[in-house]
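request received
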Amino acid sequence: MTTLWDTTGTAVVAALAAERRLAGSVSAGLALTLVVVVDESHVAEAEAAATRAAAQHPCRLLVVVRRRPDAPESRLDAEVLIGGRLGPGEAVVMRMYGRLALHAESVVLPLLAPDAPVVTWWYGEPPNLIAHDPLGVFADRRITDSWLSADPMGALHRRAHDYAPGDTDLGWTRTTLWRSLCAAGFDSLSGPVRRARVAGAPGHVTRALLAGWLQSRLGVQVEVSDAPGTGLSEVVIELEDDVTLRISRGGGTTAVLSRTGQPDRTLPLPRREIGDLLAEELRRLDPDEPFAEALEAATGTRGLSDRSPIRRHIWHDPVESPDPDPALTVS
Amino acid sequence: MSQVHAPNPLRDPRDRRLPRIPEPCVLVVFGATGDLARKKLIPAVYDLANRGLLPPGFVLLGFARRDWGDGDFESVAKEAARKGARTEFRDDVWQRLAEAIKFLPGSFDDDGAFDNLARMLTELDATHGTQGNAAFYLSIPPSAFPTVLQQMARTGMADNSTAGGWRRVVVEKPFGHDLESAKELNRLVDTVFTAQDVFRIDHYLGKETVQNLLALRFANTLWEPIWNAHHIDSVQITMAEDVGIESRAAFYEQTGAARDVLQNHLLQLMALTAMEEPASFDAEALRAEKIKVLGAIKPPRDMAAYTVRGQYDQGWLAGQRVKAYREEKDVAPDSKTETFAAVRLEVETRRWAGVPFYLRTGKRLPRRVTEIAVIFRKAPHLPFAKTDTEELGANQLVVRVQPDEGMTLRFGSKVPGSQMEVRDVAMDFLYGEAFTESSPEAYERLLLDVLLGDGSLFPDAREVEDSWRVIDPIEDYWRDHDDRGGRPELYRAGEWGPKGADMMLARDGRSWRRP
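response:
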C-alpha cells in the first residue's frame, strides 16, 4: 500500500505502476474500471460494497471522495492498494479538496484501465443531471441509487428525464428477486391478465419500478397501494380465468407464493447487501432495455431507449448554484 | 401429453437478470445415502435453492435401502449440505428446502417399493404442484441399472405421456466397460426413456474453463486461423491426480485408468479441442460436431510404441510415504490394473492430419492438475544467431482446467540487456480463486441443466459408443499383452508416470510438458 499526501495525478499513476510491479505477476485480467463517487461519511460502506462486487468481477477500483469544493486551496490525497483491504484487485482511493473536486476527471482519466469499459457508481444523492459530473460522462455504464435521495420518487423522475441508454438505478436492481419470483410463478400460467397490484411502503422507488415493469410486460394498468413496512410487501396478479397469483413477503427472508388451486409455497427472498446489488449491475455492460421500459411506465415518459447513449459535459458549479435547474425537481 | 403454454410474458430474452428457473418437478435420487449423493448432489441442490434457482414446486425424493423416514433423510441431507455447499449455509433456506425432502425406503427388486414411488409421484403432483415432472438420478452401481430401469418401465413412471409432464434420467459414468456393454446399457436406457431425456453426466463438462474453451475458440478471431496442422505441432492433454485409489479398490480393479478417465474426460476434452465450429450452441449442433471428431479419432496403429500403461509402486509423495498399488486394501497382490495410461491419438481430418494428440492420466502423480496444452510449431526461420535463441521453446497455449482455472500463453521475448537473447515467458490469465468462488460447481450447473432440459453439456449414446471404439482396441492389446506375461510398467508414487511415457514422446522427438 502507498499513501500519498498533497500529491498530483502523475504521482498517483506512478504509484499504481509501482504497486503493480511490487505485486509480482499482475494478479488477474481486468474486465472493467469501477469509479465510485462517494461522500466522506459513507466511504467505509461504499468501499465494503465495491470490494464485494470486485470479488466477482476483476476490476480496477477508483474511489473518488469530493470534499469541500468551496475550500480555498485545492489538494489531492491518495491511497494505492493491490490485494489489500479492497479485495484482490487494484484500488485507488482519492480525496479531492477545493476546486479540484470539480475537475476530478483530470486525475481519474489517466488511471482508467486501457480500453476496458468504465462503470461509474454514485453512492449517495444522485446527480440532478449526470452530464454535470464528468465522471459520469466518460462512463459506459452509470449506476445511481434514487433510494438514497432525500426525495426518492423525485429522484426517480429525474432519472427518467435524464435517462440515456447505459444508465441504471439500484432501485431497479432491488426488483430482480421479486421479478424472478413473479416470472417463476407465471411460468405455468397462461391467458390474459385482468389486473395487477403492487403493495409496499409509500414513495418507494422499487415499488414504482416493479409496477412499471409489470405494466410494460403484461399490458394492463398496475395499481400501486401503500402497505406498512420498509419495502415491498406484496404482488397480486389476477387472470381472466379467475386464477390469482400472489407473492407476499413472509417476514424475514422468505416469500410466500400462493396460487388459486395450488398449495402455498415458501421461497427464499433474502435482503441483499448493496455489494451484491452492485455485483449484479457489473454483470452486464450494455444498456438494460427492460429497465428503460419499466422506468417509462413508472414515470409516464416515452422513448427512453431511442435516446443517444452519449452525453456531453455541461459545466455546473455547485458553489455558485446548488440547484442548477429547479424545473427539474419534479414533485 | 406435455402441456403447451403461451410464452410467459414476464420472461423477456433481453432481461438477462432473471435466472433460468426450471419448471416445478421432483428430483428422485436412487442411492440417496451413497457417497456421491452426500458429497456432491445434496450440496448442489442446496446451492441451487440458496441462489433461488429452484422452482416454487420442487421436491427432493430419496430412495434407498434404509429403514428411514423423511426426517432421518432430512437430517443426513442437512449435514451433507452444511459440509459440502459452496454458498453460505443458511438455516432459513434449509427450512424451506426441508419441507420438500421426502424419503422412500425400498430395495431395487421390490415391486412394492416402486409401486409406492409411482403413487407418490402422482400424489406430489397434487400436494406440491409438480405437474408430472420428475428427474431420476441413478446414483447407484451400474450393475443395478437394469433392475431399476425395468422397474421404471413396469410402473410406467418413465413415460412422458402417462406422467403428463417430463420424465428424465441422469446416469453417472462409467457408461459401460466396453463398446458392447455400453451399447447394451444405451439400448436399455434409451428404450425405457426417450433418447433426449437421458442425461449422461461427465462432470468435467460442467466446469467453467471447459465451457470457456468453446468461447476461446469460437468467439475470437485470433485462434481460428492457426488452429490446424499448419501451425500446431502437437497437443498434450493431462489429467493428473495425487491421490491413490482411496476406498474404490473394488471398482478400480475392474476398471483401470483408461476406462475410468481416458474414455470419458480426456476424450471429451480432446473432442472440444479438435472439433469444428458448431452451427449453433444448442445440444444437437454441439453433439453433431463432437461425434464427427470422435469418429475421426483413430486408435494408434503401433500399439506397442504409442500406448503406455503404468502402475504406481511405493514412494514418497508430498512429504509422505505412500503404498504401492498392489499393497492397497482389497487389491490383488498380482494385480495388472493400470493406474496410469498414456496414448498417442490422431484425428484423421484435413485440419488435424499429422498432429499427434498425447493423452495421459494417472494416480499418485506429483500434483493434481488437468490441462490442455496446444503446442505450436517452431518458426521456420529465425533471423537471430543460433546462440541467441537457445532458450527459445515452442509457443504454447495452455488451458488450465483445474486447479487455478485459466489460460497461459507462452512465447519468446528478449532478455533485457545489451545482448540479443530470446527466451520463453508466460502470460497468464487467471480466473483467480477470488473470481470463481461465486461461479457454480460443476454438479450444480449440470443438475440445473437437467431440470431445465438443456442437454448441450451431456454426451449422448453415440458419443459414448464412439469413445469406446477408440479405447476398446487399446484394452484388447493390453489384455493380449497380459496373456503373454506382460504387466503395467511400475512407476514410483510421486513421479510423472513410467519411463515408457517419456520414451513414447522421445520417439517422436518431443517431451511432456511439466504441468
